[in-house]
C-alpha cells in the first residue's frame, strides 16, 4: 500500500498566513504532464472536490486529487523561505530526477 503524502507544520503555518483574514481555501497539490522533466507540480489555492484526499492541520487543508495521488505517495509537502525565494516545495521519493527549480520531475 502506498503511503499518503505528508504536510509539514511549516507548510500548514504558511497556508494559515495566506488565508489570514479571509475564507480559508485549501492548498491543492496536483501533478500534470509537462515541464522540463516530464511531470510538473501544480500548487495553488483551490476548493476541495468530493473525491480529493484531504490532509488537515492547524485549521488548514491540503487537497490532492485521485489522479495525482500515486505520483505523490510518501511525498512531503513543505514550505521554504530562503534568500532565493519563498515557496511550497515537494520532497518526492518517487521522482528519479527533477529540474533545478523543483517544479518538474521524472519517474
Automatic annotation (TrEMBL):
Gene Ontology MF term list: 2 iron, 2 sulfur cluster binding; 4 iron, 4 sulfur cluster binding; iron ion binding
Domain of life: Bacteria
A Pfam family this chain is assigned to: Fe-S_biosyn
InterPro entries, per database record: ATAP (IPR016092), ATAP_core_dom (IPR000361), FeS_cluster_insertion_CS (IPR017870), HesB-like_dom_sf (IPR035903)
Domain (Core) ranges: 6-102
Biological process according to GO: iron-sulfur cluster assembly
PANTHER family: IRON-SULFUR CLUSTER ASSEMBLY 2 HOMOLOG, MITOCHONDRIAL (PTHR43011)
NCBIfam families according to UniProt: iron-sulfur cluster assembly accessory protein (TIGR00049)
Protein name: Iron-sulfur cluster assembly accessory protein
